[in-house]
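## retry 2 of 3
previous attempt timed out at serialization; input unchanged, resubmitting
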Amino acid sequence: MNATLSQRDPRQCRACDNIRGNKTVGKHFDVYECARCKAIFGTCYLGESYVMVKPWMTSENVPPENQRYYDFTTIGSDGIGRRHGWYDVNSGLITQVG
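## retry succeeded, writing output
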């Protein structure tokens, strides 16, 4: 396999491909917030991802301006997984999965 296809800068946003200005989120050195679209993405433990985006859906109709994309590669007791979708920035609850 071509090495350039399998390697991706971990700071590159998974929603909009931006790299410039992306910063780590809190103490999570492998989780970033995109400077352009404000998505959060990266690699972390499954439990840590629940702190940033809760594992429950919201029952409210959240306006688009209060939603952000998230995409985590998670490490848990079942191995490596993925959590991604949209979440409410005010409550941390999921608005859309996938």
